[in-house]
Amino acid sequence: MDYLFDISIIIITYNPIWDKLVKTLDSSSIVQKKISFEVIVCDDGSDIKFKEELQKYFSVKSFKEYKLIFHDRNNGTVSNFYSGLKLASGKYTKVISPGDYFTETEALGSDPMNKI
Questions:
Q1: What are the tens digits of pLDDT across the range 25-76?
Q2: C-alpha–C-alpha distance, residues 41 and 93, integer Å
Q3: Could you read off the pLDDT of 85-111 as tens digits, one per residue?
């Protein structure tokens, strides 16, 4: 099977705090090196969707490999994750939430077995 990316980073949200979401995005879409990846943000029916803010964020950062999913109502964590997984184009997936972040620039691309 052919994949478009090495990894799909799926960020699952529900009523996220914007600053925490930005910190998570900054650690994934800005600093990761030596790997191809996409970012998929899946929102599970939050009161505030942040759709325009996310589009602006990715535009300002010149990051184009992203997808946004906004559910009208809360369907639960597993269903929210699965909606992102169905759109994922990476060989592997990494699921995180707002406030989670990568501390190294090669956190996703540093495979000690050189299998990625």
A1: 988 766 777 888 999 999 999 999 999 999 999 999 999 999 999 999 999 9
A2: 13
A3: 999 999 999 999 998 887 777 777 755
Are 96 and 17 within 8 A, CB to CB? no
* Residue 30 DSSP class: I
Q: Which two tokens stand for residue 41?
A: 């943000």
Residues 6+ apart with CB under 8 A from 49: 43, 70
Which tokens in the block code for residue 113? 């077995």
Count CB atoms within 10 A of the CB of residue 103. Answer: 7
Checking phi first, is residue 76 left (phi over 0); if not, alpha (psi -120 to 50) or beta? left
Out of 1.20.1260.10, 3.40.50.300, 2.70.50.60, 3.90.550.10, the CATH code matching 5-96 is 3.90.550.10
